[in-house]
């Protein structure tokens, strides 16, 4: 699903890349920017966390003439005299104005790096409202946002992600450059698709999906296995037929003390042997420990 | 300055990466030896250094630096070092007996709600070298020991993160200098707090800083407990894409702090073991 999302989202789409301190989702975000630039789309980056130089350095080799950077990095709170974009300007009017100013009449892709910065300074309902308005507004075709999920309460992350049409959660992979992406995609019909994939990002920001982890598939087959009858292919019988039961009841068990057995033991027949023992003087018989002479 | 650490980080006072935000963190351990390392490192590299010392007195840092072969007094005299002694400054604000000494840097103590803008202004003006000494010193460097102390002084996590963001934007991006910040955390690492716990401010601060930094040095105690010959372990984590194309790269070392330096070695290769 990841490659399809990279190839382009439907108009009105809202994609969130969720990351944590263990693995930064920024490179994946850059891959999305790179892919959009390669499709000759205008990309507007609202950068709170990365400077313009660093972003352009990271996107080396892409068509950055269609990239418009709105600098919210140098002065996001208006502490100096000429702030370019402050976090308090994050509203529909200002953003539409910014995008219309620079881009052609074609709707553009808006990249927000990151939503966490905005959520830290604005109340979540405001942010959600603005995002929803942007989605519907028309000036923006697609919104792609980075969200540091571990910085916020779970409820806030949840409500922002509910707005999104696709959520990609990235986590570190088992080795080296690999990372795991959990993708949840909601199509307009309301169908929700989930997929997990291992990917790595090449130096030119292309994403290579290596494989799908196998444990997802095995989880699906689990219920089928439980339905099968464990007594189906046994090498022995679990139930008895009537004749078998009668035969079983007839059989005398070896340690049941029957009358015949008792008499056979008590009255030994004629001619049977018997042990007579008379201790002589040399016999050292210890009353208290009769087994004293045994070499145990 | 620990030469072993320099070789691990692949830097030296003569050539170091500019524009880096280095986060030094410790968890149930003490990482201040790394702050002393970076202080002496950047002074040797002839950088203009601004040191925000909130934990110890000037004489403490001076004495440790002396052992590491750097004189803070000389650096201060030459104008290379700007030292904010947080303990002294805060005392003059909390107990205003003398006439106002003029420094606005610790103004947040009067009203923590206003944020750390005044402290940032202090850093910015300190590093902008107005007295024409720009050619004399190399790129500016900001060292903070330590940022989590601000939380105990009533500053919110958000304000502390804003401060670090502005420092990073100004020092790292604009002036191509470096920032080193220490943050402490007392809790266990695997504690599942999900950000719901408002009391765990230091944890949130550490997470926020980890998202900002380009290089993280995480100091931990040994998981197996106290050891006389190994004082703990350091995880070095490069978060920015390296020249060889790798992004998140991690290395783990054990260390022992000596009287005049520290030795770093791979896990299990301490001289006490081998």
From TrEMBL, chain A:
Q: Where in the cell is it found?
A: Cytoplasm; Nucleus
Superkingdom, natural source: Eukaryota
As one GO molecular function, the record gives: tRNA binding
Keywords annotated in UniProt:
Cytoplasm, Nucleus, tRNA processing
Region of interest (Disordered), ranges: 212-231, 263-296
What pathway does the UniProt record associate with this protein? tRNA modification; 5-methoxycarbonylmethyl-2-thiouridine-tRNA biosynthesis
Xref: Pfam families: Elong_Iki1 (PF10483)
User: What ranges does the record list as Acidic residues composition bias?
Assistant: 280-296
Q: Which GO terms describe its cellular component?
A: cytosol; elongator holoenzyme complex; nucleus
The record, for InterPro entries, names: Elp5 (IPR019519), P-loop_NTPase (IPR027417)
Instruction: Tell me where it mainly resides.
Output: cytoplasm
Give the GO terms filed under biological process for this record.
Answer: tRNA wobble uridine modification
What family does this belong to? Belongs to the ELP5 family.
Entry protein name: Elongator complex protein 5
- Species: Scomber scombrus
Query: In the record, what lineage is assigned to the organism producing the protein?
Result: Eukaryota, Metazoa, Chordata, Craniata, Vertebrata
UniProtKB/TrEMBL annotation, chain B:
* Assigned GO CC terms: cytoplasm; elongator holoenzyme complex; nucleus
GO BP, sorted A to Z: tRNA wobble uridine modification
Family that this chain belongs to: Belongs to the ELP6 family.
Q: What is this protein called?
A: Elongator complex protein 6
Write out the entry's keywords from A to Z. Cytoplasm, Nucleus, tRNA processing
Location of the protein in the cell: Cytoplasm; Nucleus
Q: Name one Pfam family in it.
A: ELP6
Report the pathway entry.
tRNA modification; 5-methoxycarbonylmethyl-2-thiouridine-tRNA biosynthesis
Q: Which organism is it from?
A: Scomber scombrus
Q: Which InterPro entries match?
A: ELP6, P-loop_NTPase
